[in-house]
Amino acid sequence: MAVATEVRFYVNLADRLGYACRLLRKAQGMGTPVVVTGEPPDLAALDQALWTFAPHDFVPHAVLGVAPSPVVARSSIVLAAHPLAAEPRALLVNLGGAVPEGFDQFARLFELVSADAADLAAARDRWKHYKAQGHGVEKHDVLAS
Fold this sequence. Notes:
By secondary structure, the protein is an alpha/beta fold. Helix content is 34%, strand content 23%.
């Protein structure tokens, strides 16, 4: 039997892209390979934010379908609209509103959810899906911490 994916929801994020940048900087520092998925506009905004979020701090990453294949293969952080198109890694980060395809190919999935009511409602549906599939799910309320 396959091991269930560990799913963590980080909810009530005032600045979801800023949080993603800090999370990816930490993952990169720890040597954790990551795929980030979401809608193309969100991934484009994250790509830009990773270049500019801190004046002296660049988080190396590659955008699948934009960067050359050898660059993607060497990058510890890959932004991909379709996560199964990237090599599975230790962590999948979801910026999108739907259950990411192939999430169960990853050991861990982090869901980054803003405080927006529609975003929270979509997250509740994803939570129910993961629980119904037998995955361990945790919630971290960033606003409360």
